[in-house]
Amino acid sequence: MSFHAYLLRCADSSYYAGHTDDLSHRLGQHQAGECAGYTAQHLPVELVWAQEFVTREEALAAEQQIKGWSRAKKEALMAGDWGRISALAKKSFVKKDRK
After folding, report:
1. Which domain holds residue 86?
2. Which H helix or E strand runs over 65?
3. Exposed e or buried b for every residue in 13-28, given b needs 16+ CB within 10 A?
4. Rounded to two decimals, what is the model's pTM?
5. 26-81: per-residue pLDDT in tens?
6. How far is it, in rounded angstroms, from Cα 45 to Cα 50?
7. Disulfide check for 26: which of 7, 19, 20, 99 has CB 3.0–4.6 Å away?
8. What was the pLDDT predicted at 89?
9. Do 11 and 34 share a domain, yes or no?
10. Exposed, middle or buried, 52 (CB in 10 Å: 0-12/13-18/19+)?
C-alpha cells in the first residue's frame, strides 16, 4: 500500500494540503463536497500536486510541513522549483532570526 500527500487549489485560489491512502477516491470526495470542513466551503477544487510515500507517517509529515508553508513556497513546490523552495526557506529563517 502506498500513501500520498497532496495539494488542492480551491475555487477562491487558496490551497489545501492533505494526505490519503487512495488519492483518486479522496479527490472525488473533496470534489463532491463530502469532506466536511475547508474544501466543502471552497468548491470546486483541483489537484495541483501530489507525491507518493511508503508510509502514512511520511505522507502526514509532508502534509503538515506543507500546511506551514507560504503561498509562494507552495507554488514553487507545484512547479518543482527546489531552488526557489530553498531560497524561500532561507528567507523565512532570516526573518524569524531577526526577532
Report:
1. 69-99
2. helix 56-67
3. eebbbbbbeebeebbe
4. 0.88
5. 999 999 999 999 999 999 999 999 999 999 999 999 999 999 999 999 999 999 99
6. 14
7. 20
8. 86
9. yes
10. exposed
